[in-house]
Amino acid sequence: MGRGKVELKRIENQTSRQVTFSKRKNGILKKAYELSLLCDAEVAMIIFSSSGKVYQFATDDDLVFHFNGCRMDRIIARYRNEVGLLHSNHKRFRTLESWKSEIEELQKSIDIMEARLRHFCGEDISTMGIKELKQLERQLRVGVDRIRSKKVSNLYTTAA
Amino acid sequence: MGRGKVELKRIENQTSRQVTFSKRKNGILKKAYELSLLCDAEVAMIIFSSSGKVYQFATDDDLVFHFNGCRMDRIIARYRNEVGLLHSNHKRFRTLESWKSEIEELQKSIDIMEARLRHFCGEDISTMGIKELKQLERQLRVGVDRIRSKKVSNLYTTAA
DNA sequence: CACTCTATATATAAACC
DNA sequence: TGGTTTATATATAGAGT
User: What contacts B153, CB < 8 A, 6 or more positions away?
Assistant: First the structure.
């Protein structure tokens, strides 16, 4: 919308990315407000800019100062209920450091797995060398083969 | 937008409220996707229709992790860290609950990613149906193709 | 950055299937 | 619910301040 058409990909120029973010953020927050008001829907939205700032909207948060997130927690709670995520808890006594380090550990594993998943999808492979690429391809082939044979056996099972 | 101008208040006619909801929901989900993609932002959105159905968007959910809300929990966790706690009485000290819930959310993401990684390797696929298997195979093929072309271009680069 | 100004691109209301 | 069409309302890209 506007003078030029935009490609649907990350805007490389940092300045215009920032400007576009600011404009579109306002636009979408307004849309969220309108949707909730017009259609009597419960809407929650959380936005982190690439620089790390957070913006939010939640239904029935005060319109003028809608940065307090009063209802956010309730909507999130409702979401968890619907989607079915149950939390059990134990481990009462721990130090701050132990919590932090566990979180760091988990985050690290997540980063590694994300990279691996991307590689499996053929993304972010520009940094990989020939050797790694070959290994990855081999692994993908193994996956394809296993799936093929699984499909075949499924067909037989289904047909019977 | 459209033939008539709309008042900013709850649409009383139930049918048109429903129709408007459906259209605007699609619109805003698209906007959320564009915002995250164009501006490299992390975006999470939860929408409950007045009839109680839930719809959602979370950055990257539809890419590698096209599973319902794999990233949602992590965005919520990040939100809770950076904002949610500012509005409670404990501004500076995180509660035990907040540590635990963040860890649980990270752990959950890890579980999902582990399962997905195994599938990519053709493991643990005995529970998958034909449809899922086909989809997985397609994704693996995309990966293989991308790697092939990358290998080819690498050879040229290396040769030069 | 926040805001202004326009030309254009999009979203969508209304009506009908 | 989903699509289609069309006229109109909005959003916003690009450029400037």
Answer: none
Question: Alpha-carbon distance B79 to A43, whole Å?
Answer: 16
Strands ordered across the beta sheet of B54-58 = A54-58, A42-48, B42-48, B54-58
Residue-wise pLDDT for B100-152, tens only, equals: 777 777 777 777 777 777 787 777 777 777 777 777 787 777 777 777 777 66
Domain limit, last residue, from A49, A67, A93: A93
Instruction: Give strand D nucleotides closer than 7 A to any protein Cβ.
Output: 1-2, 6-14
- Tokens of residue B5, six digits: 């101008």
Chain C footprint bases within 7 A of protein beta carbons: 1-3, 6-14
Helix (H) or strand (E) holding A39: helix A14-39
Q: Which residues pair with B48 in a beta bridge?
A: A42, B54
**Beta strand pairing call for A54-58 and B42-48:** unpaired
Q: Taking every pair of C-alpha atoms in chain A, what is the biggest distance, in angstroms? A: 64
CATH number of A19's domain: 3.40.1810.10
> For position B33, what pLDDT does the model report?
92
Token look-up 């239904």 returns A59
> In A8-157, where do the E strands start and end?
42-48, 54-58
Range of the domain at B32: 14-93
Question: Which nucleotide is closest to the Cα of B26 by its C1'?
Answer: C11
- Strand C neighbours among A 50-109, CB < 7 A: none
pLDDT in tens, B54-67: 898 988 754 444 44
